[in-house]
Write a structure and sequence with these properties.
Four copies of one chain form a homotetramer. Chain A is built from six helices and no strands. The first copy, chain A, has 121 residues and is an all-alpha fold.
Chain lengths: 121, 121, 121, 121
């Protein structure tokens, strides 16, 4: 599978099959899946705790460490896809719609080169 | 945009353009993007705090509340796609590779209908 | 040590000594300690993922599981105390000051028996 | 109230009274309170997203920004104290017991001046 070939629907399908064959629909309420996204993402973040930005970037140059990172990212994505699949969220549509809002909150001429939150721009 | 049409690469491209026109590469280290995934996912989770599973599920039946949920999911996905795009992670590949591992950790005959962690199966 | 005897300052002192003898001040910026609070708390939360409220409560009746919970809570508290100690936060003062604000946001006659957020009261 | 005077039990009592007068015991299961700790801590962390370590430290020198930080820390502590109070966790005991374990995992001669995780020491 590759990002250049696969649609988001195909990824959702993969996750759905994995969970349905295990009869997990009963456990996959939106509250628990949101917990899942947070806790998996926190495992990713945990790798960077007390590390400098340079150390963090270097993790991606080390094959063993990169693989660990990619596993954590995959676990997070799994939960996010499962939530979207179970509760009928079209991720592409939701993303482009939200980005249109962000585009107004962060006008290019104000936000260019800035790390400020929209409320401080 | 729709999940049935769009590849993951297309979503990444969208996010990349949004950030590059704002000259944000300098701020988007893996540590800060991981913080971004966690904090956006925590905003999603916050909606379900002190709510029952039934209340949580009902949010998706109320158009206004559903839209709020979808915005939070989109924000989380944005950060995840940006991390993958900046640090060359093929999400489809990472997902299918990690799911092959999970498939062994959670054999169907043991995990079917169970909410136990693999270490307790 | 016991909650009925120990002041918050005494707990802070304990954490400070542990970190200073290891020469860790250099790593304990507010950003990393906040990451620490989130990631430790996420480990606690992870125990409850896909579990019912009843299962979650029962963890505290099982001595082995209770000990695991208490370790996670202790790790979270450690990070919080360290942040307060490093950046001169008087936790008792901060707590009582914030609770005075919450007291107005959640007036008893409106919030009694309700799980609504103040903005929905 | 001040950290040098107040015992942990006194803080717990304060939180307990606030919640009991609002009849909130029914909502305060361990799963939801753990969600509470994570989401409040994530709000604290959110202030530091995309900020440098220097910017993060400087927040504590600006009275207005410091107050915002202290409010977030107080919200996190509130949830942690409530969990401890509801489920009979003696925080001082739990902390000192866990620190005795950490003391062995991070021997001074190995961990001094190091930001490595115990598993990498």
């Amino acid at each position: 599978m590759k990002d250049s070939k696969n649609t988001v629907s195909q990824l959702k399908k993969l996750v759905q099959q994995f969970c349905e064959v295990r009869d997990w629909d009963q456990y996959h309420g939106p509250k628990d899946l949101s917990i899942g996204i947070v806790t998996e993402a926190a495992e990713l973040l945990d790798h960077f705790r007390f590390k400098t930005e340079t150390e963090a970037r270097n993790y991606f140059k080390d094959p063993k460490k990169r693989l660990e990172m990619e596993h954590e990212v995959a676990d997070t994505l799994f939960m996010l896809l499962r939530l979207a699949q179970m509760y009928d969220i079209d991720l592409s549509k939701a993303l482009s719609r939200k980005m249109a809002i962000s585009n107004k909150k962060y006008p290019v001429h104000k936000s260019k080169g800035s790390n400020k939150k929209y409320s401080d721009l």
